[in-house]
Fold NHR domain-containing protein.
Amino acid sequence: MFHDVKGENVKLNSSRTTASWTPVKSGGLTFVSTPLTYERPLTLTLDGSGAVELGITCTDPACY
């Protein structure tokens, strides 16, 4: 699930399991709602063209 803290251009589905954005705008920042673990892998599926940046943080997204 994705965290409630997100960029202005990100839309989450009702279960917060899918995030999408309009690729012609910035503001596509999003976080997962729980820490990453080996037991619960994260899968990213990217559609479209262009660039994507992926980062990992130890900071609670609620601090943003």
Q: What stands out?
A: The mean pLDDT is 81. The CA atoms of residues 5 and 64 lie 8 Å apart. The radius of gyration is 12 Å. The first strand starts at residue 2 and ends at 6.
